[in-house]
Each structure stands twice: as structure tokens, then as C-alpha cells.
Fold:
Amino acid sequence: MGKRTLLLGALLILAASANAVTTKDMASGVSAADIVKTLAGAGITITNVKVTGSPSAIGTFTGGNADGISIDTGVIMSSGKIETAAGPNTSSGTSGALGQPGDAGLDAIANFPTHDAIILEFDAVTTTSTFSIRYVFASEEYTEYVGTKFNDVFAFFVDGANIALVPGTSQPVAVNTINNIQNKGLYHDNPPGSDNFGTSFDGFTSELTAVAFVSAGSSHHIRLAIADASDSILDSAVYLAAGGISGSGIASAVVPDLSKFADQNGNAPIALFASNLDELDIPVTVFGVPEGVKPVMSASGLPDDSTITFTSTKPLDAQTPTFNMHIKIGPDTMSGFYPIVIRAGIGDAEVFSTLPIVIDCQPPFILGTPGHQPGSTTVTSGQKATLTVSSSGTGGARYQWYLGHSGNTNFPVSGATATTLLTPAISAPTEFWVRVFNACGTTDSATALITPR
Structure:
């Protein structure tokens, strides 16, 4: 029996003892002025604020980062009570039917009747020709109802046009457009009991930025709305970043293209896999850049011995520059999971996306077969010998040769840091060995005995 069947005619409230997110709704004293003060960022003046819907469905929040949401503080709007947003996720059916009507504008986007709409609208004047909103969309409809009529949706209408779109497309952001099947690089799955993230929602998007190009200095009507589709259960919410409504220049999204890493079925990976010294070239597109502006590209998330650089490539169009992101994994980068944050900055504003990379670092090893271990040999007294080692494992291996028996590091051979060692002149039986090491460990060779004759 599905979670929706279990909830028909009922109300299920998530109970959690350790909530990372803290919310305060308008029913508890948050005012429309508080909401505007929280949301207003650089370059924008907001007036004529109006909220339509349940006062328990809109308010402020803190602690988003601890819940796994990349927006830490701001305003939350929900098709249920915002208090149910706090995790952990212990139920696939968190719901809060509010008995509110839907919204005609959202009906048209969802292609189904909507219910329990909450609407925030205001007039805005910007200092530049760009208007933007930073946000994360989350829902309890994931993943059981992806592709169905329960297509919970929200929209950011600027003078009547919705700007909350899947990056690089004209599709509205909704349960059916960003999920575990479509645009999954922008989706984070959080099934109940998985502890993938701290939030109570079953899934949510990466942080996105909606952008509109407007007339600077003129008043524009903004309308933010979210609602359930087809019924009034299984909540969805949108997290709006504090200071995230801006009237200064900003791009809409930065999107890495992983299509060349796709499997035989054409599915792009959620994370990339690499080893030490690997080099990866990844196309990156920045959408919605103001015309004539070049974003500053940067990335972080790898240790200092690894590098990430960007070079411009042929743009898709004047407002969609593209770059090649070159990643070189360093020799000392340890095994592990590294979320690479890719940023496109315009002035003081930036948009970003996260690209996970898994470094598979294997300690070195030396096979015992001939040609791999340095071999014992005989030379004419007073002559030198040549010893060679051949190791396997992750790239970036380094070497140090020693005099004496294997494991005795008291007598390193100065400057002997290559795979081949030319010994000093041999006049008495002498032992040599080599230690091979990389970021993930070391291995010692067998002892090679050089005997003069």
C-alpha cells in the first residue's frame, strides 16, 4: 500500500526529537515586513508586500546547512505547515492539509488543479537590469509520485512570467522535472531512515537561482507561490535564501556537463571517479549571464596538491558562456569523497553547483615475479650494479633507496629517488632495497644482494 493511500483523509505530522532546522511562522509572530527584511539583498527595493494563504505555511528558518540544505537561513514557504520541515526523515508521508485553495497560475504550470497554495507578492525596483532569487525546492512527493499527477509545483512570477526554471531549459522546477530520473544531477534523494540528509523531506534540489531581465529603476510585480497538485497531502516547500532576492547582476546557474562519462544506457554519473595524477576535462556552462559580462570561474573542494583551472570555450550564446574545467588530481590526495563546488561570480554575487568526485587511491605494491623486484646479482669487484623496481597501484608513486636489509631505513642513498638505482662501486657484498610510497601507503621491496667476484 502506497504512502498516499495511507494518508487519504488523515493528517500525519512528523515527530522528531533533534531538529536541525528551526522555523517560525506568521502565526507565531513573523510579519510580512520580517519576511521582506530577510529576503531583500543588494540592489533591490521592495514595497506593497502581500501574503495569501495559511499563516502557518510561511515564515523564517535557520539551520538549513545542518539539515543538508545548502541555504542556511532565510524564508520557507510550504504547501503544509513549515514546522514539519525539520528532520530527521522518519516518514515518507509528512503532510499538513491546510484547507486552502490553489492558485490558477500554478494550475497551468502543474497541468493539474492545485491546493493549499501560499503566495507572497510584492513590487520591486532594481538597480540593474537583473532580478534574481536563490532557492531550494523540496518535496514529500519524491520519489514514489515522480511522473504522476501529484506534480507539486511552485513559481516565481515576474510581471506574470515564471522564472523558476530548470537551468538551461524552459521547464518549470517541479517534482516531475527535477528528480531521481530527470535532471538528477540537480537532485538529492533522502528516503526515510537513510540518514542521507537531516531534512524531513524525501528529496530536494541543489541550490538554484531564478533570473529575470527587467528594466532597472522601474517597478515590477513579483509573485512567489507554491502548492500541492491534485490533492492537499504530502507537502512540498521552497527555501528562499536570506538576502537571496537581488537586483544586482548574477547568473542563473552553473552546470557541469557529464555526458561524456555516461554509461552504455546514456545515464550520466552522479559522481566522478578518479585516481592520483588523473586529469579530467569537464565542460561547464553558465546560464543567464547579463550580456557583455564575463563571470569569474573558480572551484574548491580538493586538497592543495590537486588543481582546478578554467579556460573559456565557444559560448552557446551571448548570455551563456562555456568553459573547460581541467581537474588534475595531485599525488598526495588521499582516498575519499570530495564535493567540488564550482562557482561563477559576477561582482559580489555568485551561483554555484556541486560535483562529487571519489578518489580511489590504492597503496603501492610490488609483485614478486622477475622484472618487478630489484634482483640480487654479481658484478666484477670495483664495478657498479643497476637495480630496478616496478611497482603497481595508484599513480604518483615515489621512491627511496637504502643500503642494508629491507626495512632498515638508517642508511638512505642520497638522491636515489627513482625506479632505477646505479649503485656505488662494489668491493664487498652489499645489500640494497627500495621503499615505494604514495598518498595511501608504502611498500618495501625485497633485499637485493650485490656480490663482487
Summary: Residues 295 and 346 are 5 Å apart (CA to CA). The longest strand covers residues 114-126. The radius of gyration is 29 Å.
